[in-house]
Structure formats: structure tokens, C-alpha cells
Amino acid sequence: MRVAVIGGGPSGLVTLKYLKTAHEFFPGTELIEAKLFEAENSVGGTFKYRAYEGAELVSSRQLTSFSDFRCSSDTPDFLTAEEYTRYLEDYCKEFDLLRFIHLKTSVTKVEHGEKSGNVVHYLTHGQETQYHCDAVAICSGLHVQPNIPDIDGLENVPMVIHSSDFKEKKQFGVGKDVLIVGSGETGMDLAYMAVTSDTKSVTLSHRDGFHCGLKRAPDPIVFGQKPALRKKPNVPYDVGASSLFDTAYVHPVLRDSPLAWGYWDKFAKWTAWVPTGTSPGYDQWIGGVSPDRYHASRIFFNKSTHAIPYISAPYHPTPSLINKIRASIIDAPIVDTKGCHIDLAPWPQAVDSSGIVHFTETDRPEAQRMKQVICKPDMIIFASGYTQSFPFLTASYPQFGEANIRNIWKERDESVAFIGFVRPSFGAIPPLSELQAQLWILNLLQRLPAPLLKEDHYRLHAHPRARIQYGIDHESYAYQLALDMGSAPSFSQMLDRGLKMTLCWALSANVNPKFRMVGPWKWEGAEGVMMGEVWETVTRRRGPWGHFTMSVLPILYFGILSAFFYVVFGVWEIALFVWKCMMASADY
């Protein structure tokens, strides 16, 4: 079998690695020939070519690292983009991938062969060549174009760039007025960089609000006592929750019901209000998501938090009695902004001939405030994301939006996969890409343990007009892929490995090493990672957002509800069976 992999970011690299090592897991399988095509001169994708000064991953290294290539224990919880790029380069060396990677090679066309298979046309060193293959993996990082909204009058602003062209703080200049359009994590990062640079003013524009969620569980002030200094801070949130009964052993009726999202929606709002007194986000007093969208099943959590104190500064209210009582019990440390702030504004509607920006009319408090502010930027940075397009695919191929089998391939067209084209509401794409690659390769080799059932419980409930329709819940999606492959360990399999391993498996998040202990991609090193690195994520949970809210409460909530549904439906099935037997006896 011959397979082409397009894109040299984490999704492409992990797909190449599993293609090249598949024969080691499946005796009798021939060595797969695979080639990876990357247009740039090195691997890394977005993390190398769209990163900016000081960019830091918002997902933890415990979650983001691939299952069988872990970071050392002294590595910080959150890597910079530069550090993660080095990690990917080391990953290539560890698994001897570089000799299968064609750099400075652009794919120009992918078409079906005359009789069968696919033909990949690629340009390298000015010469076009063809590669005939059986399957194609299209991975994140190629032909991703900056999304520039259509706003009248942009030519009246001295400098307009997309965030992909922003690299260093010095690009802000000195004494400039800066407008950043887009309130995602990149927009927040750039706003913080701008307000802490030698700028005159910083304005951040948003479409319909955001929810600021922390990257790690907080350590608030409790009864006036600051948290004790410890060697390591509190656990990252993306590996802080227990999977037992949340995804493992949850009854299908509960899993598919609003109750499944209900706990985490309340958790997101209450863990913001309890330490800070405001529920739109952690210490976020303005810019909340509209009520019709504000639910954990619909939003993407914004984990870039440094700009929030500067955004909230003009909107801190006089504390109410209930907030004074709350703060006397538990409170978040106050960030000193040194008198600086970031103006929050609605979405730009137009720029007039004098260079003044006019914003969309809304009834939000920030819109009313901005009516008193003249926003005449020297520089606009669009942190408005990217659009995916694949002009090299001929019309006979599906697009990634048509990939209806686990968001990976289209039914009856499994020879073409889209790896990495999901967006978790709170999680990371690279580990999901690893699971996607595993599932797709199993399907190519015709080694799936059972036909895949159509499921959509892991999808976010996106508004029909939302730009991103491929949002998913990381934990649910990861566990579903593991179930599909037979890689999700059972409770009895964990009990056979001892009490500590059972507790680690039950109380840990759905990190990928958990799904390498059994199943077709079983790896002997998985148990060591679980008992070491993953166990540490369990033992590091502390404070009000430690084991109580991240383990005990969800296990009780989901466990009791699942038990109820199992009993009710079990009794119903027994009653139905008895009734059928009685009817059959009567007929006889």
C-alpha cells in the first residue's frame, strides 16, 4: 500500500509515523510506503510559521504530547510555540521520519487514477512530479488562508495586517493606536502584548462575546490566606477532570441528553463566579457571550487570560453585599494593571475617510462606552482566524466538511482522510489527530473490530450560521475513537493491574497513553506513562477545584444518573422479554 500525506504539522507527522510503523503492530501486514509533502522548508506547520513572539500553547504538554513520545518531567506544563516546534522535530528524529518527508514540495493537484487509486501531482525544485498511491491523508497546515473580514474603508488605515504576519512586539511601533479585530486566543495574546508595549491606545473588537477560562485550576485566596508556595502550580484544567462515568460507562441516554452538558456548563460559570464574582468568565466583567449562545455545549473557551484584567479594568462595579461576603471567604488575587486598560469594542462596521472606525450598533455596555471614544488606529491587526481550502483536490473528491465518519473520511470514500480538522471546545488538536490517524489506518487495513455506529454526542451544538461547524468536546470525542478501535480499557482490565492503576485510569482525563494499554495499538510503555506522568496530574489537584469538583462531584453526578438509567432500561428490557414470552405462550 502507498499513502501520500499532505502537510508537515503535528497532524501530518503523527499520521506518517503510524503509517510507517503499522506493520510492527499487525504481523503479516506489508510495510506501508508513505511520503509526506510539506511546502515549507521545515516541519512544524502553524506552530512554526504562524507563531509570534512569546506565543505559548494553551493546551498542556500532558495532553498535547503524543502518546509514545513524552516531554521530560521537568518541562513546564505549557510549552512555547518554539519549544513545541522543537518537540515535533525531535519526534521526527525519534521515529526516523525525516527520510520520508519532502520539504519545499507543494502539492498542485490530487486526482483519481485512470483505473484506481490516486495521483498526487507535486512541485519540487521547479519540477512537477507524480506520485501514484492508494490513499491520501490531508492534514492541517496546507492551503490555510488568513480570514480577512470585508470592512469598508480599510484603505484609510495606515497599516492593516493579519495576525499571521505579526511576529514581534516591535511591529507595534512607538506611541501608536492599535485596533485588534478578533477576540479569540490570538487576539487576546496580541492585545496583551500591545497594552504592555509602548502604545498609545489598544482596542479589542469582538463579534458576540467570549468566555475567559483558565488554563490551570486556580489557587485563590481562602479566608484571607494566600495559597502556599509549592514546587508546582495547580493542575492544568485540560487534564484535571476524571473520565469515570463522564465518558467511561456513561449510559447512552444520559450521554445524548442535555444533562451530560449541564454539569460542565454550571461548572464553567460557577468556577468563574465563586473566586471573582462574575460568571461571564474568570474575572471577566465585560464582553460576555450572548445569552442564547452561552452554554458549554456551544462555545469555545478562551484560555488566553493575560489581557482580561486590562479589559475588565474600566468595568469593575462597586462590590455588592453578596460579593463582599463571597470575597471574604474566597477571592482571586488582583492583577495590577498600573492604570493601563484595553478598550473593548463591537465588530467594526466601516472606516471613514478620516480613518475613524465606526462600530456595529449594539446594546452592550462596551458599545455605549465606545460611542464616547474616537478610535482612529494607526494599525489594525486581524486576529480573525483562517479559512481552509484545498484547490489541489479535483471535483470528484469530498471536502473536509463532508467527512461524515468521525469527521475523518466520507462514507464509501475512505481512501481520503482529513486529519486534524476538528476544533475542541477545551482541549488540543494534536492528540486527537493521533487517534484519528490510528482509526483511519485500521480502516485502510480492514482491521476495525466492528462497523462504526453513527454517533454525534461529541459534537458542539453550533448555531447554523456559525463559521465553525466542526467543534467537538475533546473528552467525548477521544473516548469515542478509542471505543471504535477497541482501545478503551475495561474496568476489569485495570483491576488486573492493581489499585493504583485502577485509580489512575478512573480519575485521569482521556489522555492518549490511556488508549495504548490495550487494543490494536498497544504499547508497552503506556503503563509507565500512566503510573508516572498521568498519576501526577491526579495527585496535583488541590483546593476548591481539586478532587471535589473535578472528581468526586462529576463521578457522583454522572454515576448515579447512569446507574438510574441502566436500572430503568434494564427492568424495561426484562419486562418486555417476559411479555413477549407470555404472548408466545398464549399463541401456542
UniProtKB/TrEMBL annotation:
Instruction: Show the Gene3D superfamilies listed in the entry.
Output: FAD/NAD(P)-binding domain
Q: What is this protein called?
A: Dimethylaniline monooxygenase [N-oxide-forming]
List the source organism: Lachnellula suecica
* Pfam name, any one: FMO-like
Family to which the UniProt record says this protein belongs: Belongs to the FMO family.
Q: Which GO terms describe its molecular function?
A: flavin adenine dinucleotide binding; N,N-dimethylaniline monooxygenase activity; NADP binding
Q: Which segments cross the bilayer?
A: 555-579
For this protein's source organism, the top of the classification is: Eukaryota, Fungi, Dikarya, Ascomycota, Pezizomycotina
Which keywords annotate this record? FAD, Flavoprotein, Membrane, Monooxygenase, NADP, Oxidoreductase, Transmembrane, Transmembrane helix
Which InterPro entries does this entry report, sorted A to Z? FAD/NAD-bd_sf, Flavin_mOase, Flavin_mOase-like, FMO-like
